[in-house]
Amino acid sequence: QVQLVESGGGLEQPGGSLRLSCVFSGLTFADYRMSWYRQAPGLERELVATIDGYTYRTDYADSVMGRFAIWADDVKSTVYLRMNNLKPQDTAVYYCHAQYTRAIRGAVYWGQGTQVTVSP
Q1: Which of 77, 63, 57 is closest to 2 using CA atoms?
Q2: DSSP assignment, residue 2?
Q3: What radius of gyration, in Å, describes the C-alpha atoms of the chain?
Q4: Pairing state of beta strands 10-12 and 3-7?
Q5: Degrees (nearest 5) of the Cα angle 29, 35, 41?
Q6: Could you tell me the pLDDT band of residue 104, with boundaries at 50, 70 and 90?
Q7: CA–CA separation, 39 vs 41, rounded Å?
Q8: Is the dihedral of CA 45, 94, 17, 56 positive or negative?
Q9: Each residue of 79-92: pLDDT tens digit?
Q10: By C-alpha distance, which of 71, 73, 72, 85 is closest to 15?
Q11: In percent, how much of the chain has pLDDT > 70?
Q12: How many helices (H) and strands (E) does the chain have?
């Protein structure tokens, strides 16, 4: 049974930094693409950053390029999202996401989300 548990959200001032963690279990990291999504009130959920478990290739949304970094520690079964130079528009619930990559329509799993609020 795949489980994703996020932590690390909170209240931060503009220009500050936060690090989110997603502890995963029940999956083999190399067989998955792990991502962070976010959803602000009234808006659709959007992809923030992705890391491929086999190649460790990363991709980012234009809005966070150069400010956010995603990486993984397979030994600790954790995917991280470092968020620097935070802006009020980064305020959202951040979700960890895992998709199985060994099949065309691989199974998808979501965490419960962690709130990030950027405000003076």
Answers
A1: 77
A2: -
A3: 14
A4: unpaired
A5: 150
A6: confident
A7: 7
A8: negative
A9: 999 999 999 999 99
A10: 85
A11: 100
A12: 0, 11
> What confidence tens digit (pLDDT) does each residue in 21-78 have?
999 999 999 999 999 999 999 999 999 999 999 999 999 999 999 999 999 999 999 9
Q: Among 116, 106, 114, 36, which residue's Cα sits nearest to residue 71? A: 36
CA atoms within 13 A on the CB side of 78: 11
- How long a stretch of residues is the chain? 120
Residues 6+ apart with CB under 8 A from 103: none
Residues 6+ apart with CB under 8 A from 64: 48, 49, 83, 90
CB proximity list for 66: less than 8 A, separation 6 or greater: none
User: What tokens appear for 61 in the block?
Assistant: 């949304």
